[in-house]
Every structure is written in C-alpha cells, then in structure tokens.
C-alpha cells in the first residue's frame, strides 16, 4: 500500500494508535472502576475512540500527501 519510506515517516502516528488500542483492550478486560454507570463507560470509550479515529484519518491523509510529494520531481 505505502512505500517503506512513507511508513517510516508516519510511524510517529502509528505508535500512538497502537497505544490507544492497548488502553481500550485493557479497559475492556479489566474494569478499573467497578461501580460505574453505562454513561461513564460510553464516555470512557468515546475518549479513546474519537482521538483514535481522528489520528487514523490524519495519518492516512499525511501518508497519501507524503507519497504524492515524493513522486513529484524537484527541479535543479
């Protein structure tokens, strides 16, 4: 899909995405707040999912932009 150089450029965004996924999995498996309500669970996951989606979109757009810029030849 993307070249190796592009993947190295966007690795700074892929690492936080992986961290968010780990936190979501931990919160799903081990409930740190045992007496929470449904609203607090929804809010908890919204605070993880919304930044994840935003960062994923930003990372994809940046990767596409970097790939296009690398294809353009720079003059002498």
In short:
The protein has 76 residues and is mainly α.
Describe, in plain words, how this protein is organized in 3D.
Keywords: Membrane, Transmembrane, Transmembrane helix. It comes from Halarchaeum salinum. This is Cox cluster protein. There is one protein chain. The chain is 78% helix and 0% strand. The protein is mostly helical. Helix 2 packs antiparallel against helix 3. It is elongated, with a radius of gyration of 18 Å. The chain has one domain. The chain starts with a helix and ends in a 5-residue tail after the last helix. The chain is built from three helices and no strands.
Describe the secondary-structure layout.
Layout: H1 4-9, H2 11-29, H3 38-71
Helix pairs in contact: 2-3
Total number of helices:
3
Succession of helices and strands: HHH
Please describe the biggest sheet, giving its number of strands, its sense, and whether it closes into a barrel.
none
Helix content: over 70%
- Characterize the overall form: elongated
Gap from first CA to last CA: 30 Å
Strand content: under 5%
Strand segment count: 0
Rg, Cα atoms, Å: 18 Å
Whole-number tally of structural domains: 1
Low confidence ranges:
none
Return the structural class: mainly alpha
* Overall mean pLDDT: 85
List its salient traits.
single chain, 76 residues, mainly alpha, Cox cluster protein, transmembrane, DUF6684, transmembrane helix
């Amino acid at each position: 899909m993307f070249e190796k150089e592009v993947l190295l450029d966007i690795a700074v965004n892929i690492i936080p995405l992986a961290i968010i996924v780990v936190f979501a999995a931990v919160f799903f498996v081990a409930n740190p707040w045992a007496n929470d309500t449904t609203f607090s669970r929804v809010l908890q996951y919204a605070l993880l999912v919304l930044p994840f989606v935003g960062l994923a979109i930003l990372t994809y757009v940046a990767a596409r932009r970097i790939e296009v810029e690398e294809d353009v030849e720079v003059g002498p």
